[in-house]
Sequence to fold (219 residues):
Amino acid sequence: GAAATATGHHADDQWETVVFRLARGSGIAGLAGMTREQRFPGGILLRPLLHLPKKTLIDFCCDHGQHFFDDPSNADPAFARTKLRALANPLQTLGFSCELAQKLGDRAKKADEAIEWTAENIFRRAALNEPDAYDLAEIAEAPRAIVERFLALALTRAAGSYPQRLDRLEFLAQELCEALSKSSRLRATLGGCAITLNTKKVMILRREGPRRRGNKAAK
Fold:
């Protein structure tokens, strides 16, 4: 029943998050790192300490006699983040500090917000009276990043969840742009939806039914 929940994520956590996502080839949204405020149905997740280094927090606790918990998993080599921490000093010596990671995250966030704002505006204008149908004449000349975000919005609305595979979303956006440029048809599936594009540049999404996983044995 809480209106908000706060976590103790700090600047070192943000550095690890950005490096981890860099290593995994994340998109611009991922490079923004963790947000200071994240809204979800029924409440808000807050990270008020995200700008402070871990050492600053430990020194503060020690100076004020405040006990704190040191998670033993932080030293467990089975976790990827533990391996990243071994790279912290060399990378920070080369200049990729917590401050720089935060600056990169802030700039990525601004770029991501611009893409989201543009895609949402096009999304509203493209929506037709028929559910999950869109006139893509306007988006035909849009930059690929806008097309990808538009598709993500449309798939989320149709399927109820954000598509999980960025590489598949990028591939579908490329196919869609090529089809739009030729005014040709396209059929595809992604994120639990069947997607069709006709020669009039109208895209329709429909939820896929449950997939059959083989025939039942005859009795």
About this structure: Strands lie at 4-6, 37-40, 43-46, 133-135, 186-190, 193-197, 202-207. The CA atoms of residues 15 and 153 lie 29 Å apart. Residues 127-207 form one domain. The chain has a mean pLDDT of 89.
